[in-house]
Specification:
With about 220 residues, the protein is mainly β. It has a single domain, classed as Beta Barrel (Lipocalin). The chain is about 10% helix and about 40% strand. It is built from two helices and 14 strands. The strands form three sheets. A six-stranded antiparallel β-barrel has the order 1-3-6-7-8-14. It is globular.
């Protein structure tokens, strides 16, 4: 082998060793959650799978005031931000319509933001909508179940959901332990994925959801 060939072989060998070392480097650690739980939110701008695309920013607001495990108060109307993970429309050739949402930021007092990881756990009709007859009043609907979660690190206090229990109208009470779709036709929820046999999954303004979150601070 000539001198040039030996030099080139040495460079290639060194590059191979460097690549091997880089690939064996440990992945950065995932930050540990400092709290977890579930709380109610409401849709303020219609979420429509026929119009949304993967990566689109979304925003909902808390449907009541509650305290975090460390005592931090989150007031009603606080913004919960996230993104669309998947969005399909049956009218575009898919077998069914689908919408998956993930949440990653919770805005609290004085402009502070908390980093969270949240998924939809349950869905309810708007608070003003009376319950349809012959529907179950509790438990998970036949449409499927969501990612279950206990309040764990998030307590609910002074929410509109609790006020519904005093209403003379037959409203569906939002329970932080609820899973699945409650009182809405042709909508299913399974592992955080909303689906429908209709042309699109459409959550109109006022639709309520229970979101399960891990809080990272």
């Amino acid at each position: 082998m000539n001198r040039f060939g030996i030099t080139l072989a040495s460079v290639l060998l060194e590059a191979t060793v460097c690549i091997g070392q880089a690939s064996s480097a440990p992945a950065p650690p995932t930050p540990a959650a400092i709290g977890h739980g579930a709380f109610p939110v409401r849709v303020t701008k219609t979420l429509d799978s026929s119009k949304l695309r993967e990566g689109d920013a979304i925003e909902v607001e808390t449907a009541g005031s509650f305290k975090l495990a460390d005592g931090t108060l989150v007031i009603e109307g606080s913004k919960l931000e996230g993104k669309v993970v998947s969005s399909k429309s049956r009218s575009k050739g898919d077998a069914h319509s689908e919408l998956t949402l993930n949440f990653d930021k919770l805005n609290i007092a004085k402009g502070k933001q908390l980093s969270v990881k949240g998924t939809v756990q349950a869905v309810f009709p708007p608070a003003e909508e009376p319950m349809a007859p012959n529907m179950a009043t509790a438990g998970t609907s036949a449409g499927g179940s969501g990612a279950g979660g206990s309040p764990g690190g998030v307590g609910l206090t002074n929410t509109k959901a609790s006020a519904d229990t005093q209403s003379s109208a037959p409203q569906r009470v939002m329970n932080p332990n609820a899973t699945g779709v409650q009182g809405m036709h042709d909508l299913q929820l399974e592992n955080g994925v909303l689906s429908s046999n209709g042309k699109q999954v459409k959550l109109g303004s006022g639709v309520r959801m229970v979101v399960h979150v891990d809080i990272f601070g």
